[in-house]
Amino acid sequence: MRQTGSCPIHWSPSLATDLYELTMAAGYFANDRRESATFELFVRDLPVQRSWLVAAGLRQAVDYLLALRFSAEDIAHLKTLPPFEHIPARFFDFLASFRFTGELWAVPEGTLVFAGEPLIRITAPIVEAQIVETFLLATINHQTLVATKAARIVGAAAGRGVVEFGSRRGHGPEAGLLAARAAFIGGCIGTSNVEAGRLFGINVYGTAAHSWIMTFESEMEAFRAYHRVFPGSTTLLLDTYDPIEAARLATRIGPSLKGVRLDSGDLAEQAGRVRSILNEAGMTETRIMLSGDLNEYRIADLIESGVPVDLFGVGNELVNSPDAPSLSGVYKLCELESPAGTRPVFKRSAGKQTRPYAKQVWRLRGKQGEFLEDRVTRDDEPAGSPEWEPLLECVIRNGGLTGPMQDLDSAGHRASSQLDSLPERYKRLKGAAAYPVRFSSRLSPNR
Amino acid sequence: MRQTGSCPIHWSPSLATDLYELTMAAGYFANDRRESATFELFVRDLPVQRSWLVAAGLRQAVDYLLALRFSAEDIAHLKTLPPFEHIPARFFDFLASFRFTGELWAVPEGTLVFAGEPLIRITAPIVEAQIVETFLLATINHQTLVATKAARIVGAAAGRGVVEFGSRRGHGPEAGLLAARAAFIGGCIGTSNVEAGRLFGINVYGTAAHSWIMTFESEMEAFRAYHRVFPGSTTLLLDTYDPIEAARLATRIGPSLKGVRLDSGDLAEQAGRVRSILNEAGMTETRIMLSGDLNEYRIADLIESGVPVDLFGVGNELVNSPDAPSLSGVYKLCELESPAGTRPVFKRSAGKQTRPYAKQVWRLRGKQGEFLEDRVTRDDEPAGSPEWEPLLECVIRNGGLTGPMQDLDSAGHRASSQLDSLPERYKRLKGAAAYPVRFSSRLSPNR
User: Fold this and answer.
1) Which of A25, A52, A360, B308 is 20 to 30 A from A10 in CA distance terms?
2) What would the pLDDT profile of A349-396 be if each residue is shown by its tens digit?
3) So what CATH class is B166-308?
4) Please, are residues A303 and A312 in contact by the beta-carbon 8 Å criterion?
5) Do the bridges between strand A359-365 and strand A341-344 make them parallel or antiparallel, or are there none, so unpaired?
6) Quick check: A169 and B24 CB within 8 A?
């Protein structure tokens, strides 16, 4: 058994895929299948309590498509695998000069999408289109899951800032970085993860841990020691011993204290008393942050009860979305194009039906800009009238970017502006109405 | 807003941590706190339906501790963050020459652990011990979660092989690789992820997708085309159209067909009929693999009903553990050591109490090797009698490995052998008994 012994683990994106993508690629190649195939990535059924998703992960998907190469080491490794023993050398030559030469259409990150609507659409020679499946799914499923959960939590926070605190609970270190990115698209104002801040230009937030308090002889000494080092940015953690007593100690720091954090117990009751103590000491600008197993439901309850709070820190619930812990996006073949013409492709299996043909998604807004309904049509089919806005845009053509990609700030603005345009009945945390999406009759398998 | 534009994203482990670890480090440094601190990573309460955990992730934790450095770029970035504006230069000099110089004790990967038992214990100068918290938690929480879920699923499969198929549902590409590793420790025989196979020396498995079948004019043509390219390793997917009809077509391939896979519908009913069809054709060696939203409960039902099955493919349920989607391991300070002596440290907060002092975990076995009970003591406290086996071993001393690390095969064998030694009442999938763990009175906060 090999052990890698590197940190972070050094891995090859071209092999970070399911074996069957590569065997099918070899199979298409060996059978001289050269048609252009169109695959679409969509979510068949939305997770529990969700009636919309915030699309995220496109940037990493694009980076992958543009960078995808098979190194000599990759190919040498593939040749050691039993299924590849008798594969002709010309397939490995093909891999050695592999480039993604196809087309990618996608909704921009931050776009609201609904069940059955393609988030991305790939058209490429079938070998290329098949190989990329696993990586695209892993990337889009994960970030869309987290961006959606973040948007629910940010919505519940009703204007108070939400900071992503989940790195320690994420599925490994890279998952934490990507979750911070997706959470920002979903509306979080920042992350605790310094590297996510550096990579993606997100604001980073930090307070202190209980361990800091406990290493000092007294809580007051711990407070003073921290404030001395960070006079302009100290947020004191109050619940190591008695949070109310700690709030009284915090007033001795004075109005330069940036914030306090409560992390356990009855947050609503504590926050009210802490706010009064701070205000009586003239510390009206000192912010209160609440954390500790928070999610959209608990935050909605806290806001409903009128708790004085300025910021929420959310960890596990944000990065793992425990009430809906995965997104079952699928990547399905819908069309084959060859010199003989266009062939629609679809699945009839019970519960797993798909719709044929490459598609476009259109959105109709009302007079105030509010979302009315979506339509999914064939990509070459008009929506009906010019008010319908097409959502899928061409991002890669002939293997190259069509233009500069949207930056992360714009993705966040897109999500918040689209959520503002979505009527309230679709946004209830529980029992939200299903948004109307109509599918063109030309996409019907029985047509 | 920055966008990285690299695949995989290139990230710095030293900054992939919560900001407060680095501000507390600066705070300890500036306050001349140089004591040796002991932190322990443990799980306070086991997740729902779990009465044991399979420890995993140690290798990546060790790689991190041994490799941890702060590059000039890391330090330059830190200096741009507002909290670090007024931090004296000597702290950054310290970071520039940072090495983990401390000690790591840990249970080997594959060890069964219970609530409250440390999986790892760090003793190091407090600045070092604090900085590493986030990364260690992210690594151990994730892999232990997946290894535990895998062991439950493998147990339910009652001797049939379980293959990890979850990369497309993991929390990003790295999470998929690490999940494949953890699943192997938990007893899976392999993974679909080629790169996980390469990095960790795990067997890789693959079949084919529905898209393969659908691109051919007929199912039989698709079957033959695949078998022609992979005569020794073809597993045909049967449920694209009618699985029973597909099984009949598969018999035309003959006994060289390695396997068939069923991925939807009534798997028990289909598998029985498919097995009969294959057997009647003399294909008794052709294996049946079942997949499609399987977990330990559904697999137990399938086995209970006597389904003829050789292999299970499990994806989302394995890598995301939806019934218990995160592990709330914590990293808690328990002891400070200075020239003035040893100081116990613990938390009293309601529901978040911790136990003071560096600890050892001991296990007592019965005459047949079966597990009887565990004890947790102070690290310098004898367990009572020589039959008690200590579980925490010293892995790193003075910043260096004490010896070669256990390989991944051994970790898998350890897990399966320990599970064999665990009495059945603790292994029920639902309603398992709580395993007895006693804590020495010397660990009592009130003592």
Assistant:
1) A25
2) 767 789 999 999 999 999 999 999 999 999 999 887 899 999 999 999
3) alpha beta
4) no
5) unpaired
6) no
